[in-house]
Specification:
There is one protein chain. The protein is an alpha/beta fold. The chain is built from 13 helices and 22 strands. The strands form 5 sheets. Strands 1, 2, 3, 4, 5, 6 and 17 form a 7-stranded mixed β-sheet that branches. Helix 1 packs parallel to helix 8 (320-334) and helix 3 (49-66) runs antiparallel to helix 4. It is globular and about 70 Å long. The structure holds flavin-adenine dinucleotide. The site of flavin-adenine dinucleotide has 37 residues, from strand 2, helix 2, helix 3, strand 4 and helix 8. It comes from Effusibacillus dendaii. This is Dihydrolipoyl dehydrogenase.
């Protein structure tokens, strides 16, 4: 039979939103139960950020070995054993997920493997291997994340037509890979497989890959994709598919034409949807918006005052660090602290080649918000460290308010953009001015010198450009 357990805080979903919320609530003295139906760590650790970066790093390593002849490096006969690469990647994932498990244990969090659904405003049912249990909670945090959108004409079969989940676990490098959807996930994985040896074609429905990202940044990625031999087709809508022996033929509308693209595998990366299926939100008074995301206020509270929601299930930006930040906010609010979602900016990173990282407003957005702006730009081609690592492609752009010189946005395309954006994010969070960036002594020779020089350039006195 079903028995009822009590919990101060019940967290549903063990991704970077849920496990962080659980730990923070436990730190604040709450008794916490964390329900996860799959694996601790969620999408991020098991089939998102971490495995993708592991594969991208190794693909890049292979690519660099093959392309450093100008520096006198000639490597003959590189072999990629995909099964070993996958085992290694899984080892990275395991270290991290086991780390999460021991953090939960050390914080006295009860982790339950099972699927949760609401039965009333303050109760959930959890179906586990052994049957079902009811949990009555004081507070609940929903952190169930998101899942890949399927195209009705090109349904997933897990073998030939795959999502990012399967693409991260391929045991064999496909000879031809067709990527449907030129957003960041499709381009990151498409680039990695190209570097591992696949022939890659990317189809993007709109007029630009990475829609929504500043074209001035995207240009560098487009150019390098071409150099890498990735075929990119924009304004291309994949409509249906046909299995043709060993190959898959995908029919695509390109403007007014119909074309057929053939490949061994088709990777569909056309977006992600909130994962609320089976939660029975309506039974507990939790409302969603038109797109199905759970509605929350600045304290992450849903329309049910006992229930909070965080991470991908609450909407964009669907990023791990946003999920974790919201998780801390929800846990602190539950513990009675005056927290709210008060991040000034949330950085976003695209792990293409070169990387793109952005924080705050673009020049255009700042103008739309009614600001007069100063903009400074510094090319990696004038930075010693970048050149000495063969990474001279790209630039740093700093946008500031003209009058106060307060930094409003920083946009980077180039080597290590993902790591460089941290300084810019802190600057904006702390209301730094151009002088704060330019008068901070930066170690030489390092990539962050480009941020200092872009800030100098904004007021017309960068040393290393005219
Ligand atoms: P999730 O990580 O999705 O976790 C939700 C968990 O809830 C899952 O484990 C699920 O099993 C569980 N669950 C769902 N329903 C129930 C239920 N009813 N009962 C119990 N458990 C349930 N973000 C970045 O910031 N940087 C990156 O580089 C990056 N790369 C990515 C690459 C790929 C290929 C993908 C797919 C995503 C990437 N993301 C990246 C996005 C990132 O993974 C998500 O933003 C993040 O995982 C969201 O965290 P979350 O806690 O909201 O949900």
């Amino acid at each position: 039979g079903e028995f009822t357990v009590g919990a101060d805080v019940l967290v549903i979903g063990g991704g970077p939103g849920g496990y962080v919320a659980a730990i923070r609530a436990a730190q604040l003295g709450k008794s916490v139960t964390l329900i996860e139906k799959n694996d601790l760590g969620g999408v991020c650790l098991n089939r998102g950020c971490i495995p993708s970066k592991a594969i991208i790093s190794m693909a890049d390593f292979v690519h660099r070995m093959k392309t450093m002849e100008t520096a006198g490096i000639r490597v003959n006969g590189i072999t990629v054993e995909m099964e070993r690469l996958q085992q290694w990647k899984q080892g990275v994932v395991q270290k991290l997920t086991q780390g999460v498990a021991s953090l939960c244990k050390g914080n006295q969090i009860t982790v339950v493997q099972g699927e949760a659904s609401f039965v009333s405003a303050n109760e959930v049912r959890v179906v586990t291997e052994h049957g079902s249990e009811r949990y009555r909670f004081e507070s609940c945090i929903i952190a169930t994340g998101s899942y890949p959108v399927e195209l009705s004409g090109i349904p997933f079969d897990g073998q030939r037509v795959i999502s990012s989940t399967e693409a991260l676990s391929l045991k064999k490098i496909p000879q031809q890979l067709l990527v449907v959807g030129g957003g960041y996930i499709g381009l990151e994985l498409g680039t990695a497989y190209r570097k591992l040896g696949s022939e890659v074609t990317v189809l993007e429905g709109t007029g630009q890959i990475l829609p929504g990202t500043d074209p001035g940044l995207v240009r560098y990625v487009t150019r390098n994709l071409k150099k890498l031999g990735v075929e990119v087709q924009t304004n291309a809508l994949a409509t249906s598919l046909q299995i043709n022996g060993e190959k898959v033929d995908v029919t695509v509308r390109v403007k007014d034409e119909t074309k057929v693209f053939s490949a061994d595998q088709v990777l569909v990366t056309v977006g992600r949807k909130p994962y609320t299926g089976g939660l029975e939100l309506a039974d507990s008074g939790i409302e969603t918006n038109e797109q199905g995301f759970i509605k929350v206020d600045r304290q992450q509270r849903t329309t049910n005052p006992k229930v909070f929601a965080i991470g991908d299930v609450t909407g964009n930006p669907m990023l791990a660090h946003k999920a974790s930040y919201e998780g801390k906010v929800a846990a602190e609010v539950i513990a009675g602290l005056p927290s709210e979602m008060d991040a000034v900016v949330i950085p976003s990173v695209i792990f293409t080649d070169p990387e793109i990282a952005s924080v705050g407003w673009t020049e255009e957005q700042a103008k739309q918000e009614g600001y007069e702006t100063l903009t400074g730009r510094f090319p990696f081609g004038a930075n010693g460290r970048a050149l000495s690592m063969e990474g001279g492609d790209g630039f740093v752009q700093v946008i500031a308010e003209k009058q106060t010189k307060r930094v409003l946005g920083v946009h980077i395309v180039g080597p290590e953009a993902s790591n460089l954006i941290a300084e810019a994010t802190l600057a904006i969070e702390m209301c730094a001015t151009l002088e704060d960036l330019s008068l901070t002594v930066h170690a030489h020779p390092t990539l962050p010198e480009t941020i200092m020089e872009a800030a100098e350039a904004a007021v017309g006195h960068a040393i290393h450009i005219l």
